[in-house]
Amino acid sequence: MADHEEQPHKAESLLEKFAEKIHGHHHDGSSSSSDSDDERKKPSAPPPPKEEEKPKIFRLFGRERPVHKVLGGGKPADVFLWRNKKISAGALGVATALWILFELLEYHLLTLVCHVLILGLAILFLWSNATTFIHKMPPHIPEVSIPEKPVLEFASVLSSEINQGIATLREIASGRDLKKFLLVVAVFWVFSIVGSCCNFLTLFYIAFVLLHTVPVLYEKYEDKVDPFAEKF
Q1: pLDDT of 20-51, one tens digit each?
Q2: DSSP 8-state symbol, 121
Q3: pLDDT over 90 for what percent of the chain?
Q4: Which of 9, 81, 204, 224 lies 20 to 30 A from 91 at CA?
Q5: pTM for the full model?
Q6: How far is CA 44 from CA 36, 83, 164, 169, in A?
Q7: Rg (Cα) of the chain, in Å, rounded?
Q8: Cα 145 → chain centroid
Q9: How many CA atoms lie within 13 A of 141 on its CB side?
Q10: Which helix H or strand E contains 119, and what residues bound it?
Q11: What distances in angstroms separate CA 133 from CA 52, 121, 129, 138, 222, one per listed residue?
């Protein structure tokens, strides 16, 4: 009798375990399906905004490089753009002094060179004799020489600019752009009129002053000059 009573209890416990397993699987399936439904319902992330293309900025004379590169870069461009104010002011001061001497005071180049050499030799001669008389020994006169590297750099830049100008004139003379050809002829005609009114030294000095003023002012106010020039 005891064995018959234990068998129904074992059967009932097995049925209960089986029912719990089925219920558990059903609950897991419903949760996973609900999770998948939630994932589907979630809104997808919006695509990243496309970068707006910046409008092309108009630059004077159609340039695409900075002013420093247009002027050739290096030390000459630094002087024209006043990167070192002492050097730029010194160069402009020397040019102004030479223009005053040769143009206003009507000094001649050969006369100036001879006078400078006479003055320099006289100073060195008197200093040498005074030092020998006081210290009983000859003075040490420093050697003066022109450094080779800056001269070669200046010659290289100058030759490069001249060759570039010749190549530009050759391209204009090829007859491909009539508008540019007429513009260059007009510029040369204006220069010829200006040259008849003043000599070469004054014209060179005016160009030198313009190179020391116009580029640096344009670089400083290019954001205002370019939109104004675009209207024309």
Answers
A1: 655 554 444 444 444 444 445 445 555 555 54
A2: H
A3: 12
A4: 224
A5: 0.55
A6: 14, 54, 58, 62
A7: 44
A8: 34
A9: 13
A10: helix 109-135
A11: 82, 18, 6, 9, 63
